[in-house]
């Protein structure tokens, strides 16, 4: 089963709460996050992820890493090994942060949805490669913007934007709801460092598992559990790093 979160998420139409009700909802969410945080412990150093291109954020519950499919996979034939290893490790919710569709920045990848049908849920939260959630760019336009930002030493002018924090919260809420329901999560992008690192870093900050001055170092330590990619920096861009550091506890 596949669902959508992020910018394509259709919110239910209900009566808008009053200011007092909104405040109560915020307090309830904060209390829920705090109670969940008490039960989470970040993975210790020396523990490797369930595949050679992944790492555990919370051992046995929340993993993150690279795209779990292989080029040319169509759903027929053997399931990609990485995908099988993740399912065998108990993963039953995949948070797909890529634009792995025609016209997206990750259109070169082969969707793995058929390989987990009936065994896991794929939640699509598309973010353009090298960008932040809610960036409106796609495909070649997003790639050119990222390339130009790298050369200029600046961030993408389209992100962060007014929707970036709201969309990131939607992704974090989806991860937390799955964990609270006893499901096990795998968050991924293409290489597992930029978009994935951004979401994992914000999740760590949300739960108060690292301070703003230590979250990037903690993220790098967790990434060492990625056997083949652990030495690569995470996240990829200064804008992504600044976004993580700015994230608030309980946000």
Automatic annotation (TrEMBL):
Residues 169-225 form the Tyrosine specific protein phosphatases domain. Coiled coil: none annotated. Gene3D superfamilies: Protein tyrosine phosphatase superfamily (3.90.190.10). Residues 1-21 are annotated as: Disordered. PROSITE patterns: TYR_PHOSPHATASE_2 (PS50056). InterPro entries: Prot-tyrosine_phosphatase-like, Tyr_Pase_dom. Signal peptide: none annotated. This is Tyrosine specific protein phosphatases domain-containing protein. It comes from marine metagenome.
């Amino acid at each position: 089963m596949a669902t959508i979160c992020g910018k394509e998420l259709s919110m239910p139409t209900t009566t808008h709460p009053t200011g007092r009700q909104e405040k109560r909802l915020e307090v309830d969410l904060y209390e829920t996050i705090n109670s969940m945080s008490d039960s989470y412990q970040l993975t210790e150093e020396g523990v490797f992820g369930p595949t050679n291109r992944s790492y555990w954020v919370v051992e046995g519950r929340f993993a993150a890493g690279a795209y779990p499919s292989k080029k040319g996979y169509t759903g027929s034939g053997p399931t990609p090994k990485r995908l099988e290893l993740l399912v065998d490790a108990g993963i039953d919710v995949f948070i797909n942060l890529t634009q792995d569709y025609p016209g997206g920045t990750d259109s070169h990848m082969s969707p793995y949805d058929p390989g987990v049908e009936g065994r896991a849920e794929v939640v699509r939260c598309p973010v353009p490669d090298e960008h932040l959630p809610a960036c409106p760019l796609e495909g070649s336009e997003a790639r050119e913007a990222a390339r130009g930002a790298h050369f200029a030493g600046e961030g993408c002018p389209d992100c962060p934007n007014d929707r970036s924090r709201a969309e990131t919260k939607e992704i974090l809420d989806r991860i937390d709801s799955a964990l609270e329901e006893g499901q096990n999560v795998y968050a991924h992008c293409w290489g597992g460092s930029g978009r994935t690192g951004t979401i994992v870093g914000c999740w760590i900050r949300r739960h108060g598992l690292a301070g703003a001055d230590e979250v990037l170092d903690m993220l790098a330590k967790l990434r060492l559990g990625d056997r083949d990619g652990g030495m690569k920096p995470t996240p990829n861009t200064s804008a992504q790093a600044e976004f993580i550091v700015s994230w608030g506890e309980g946000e």
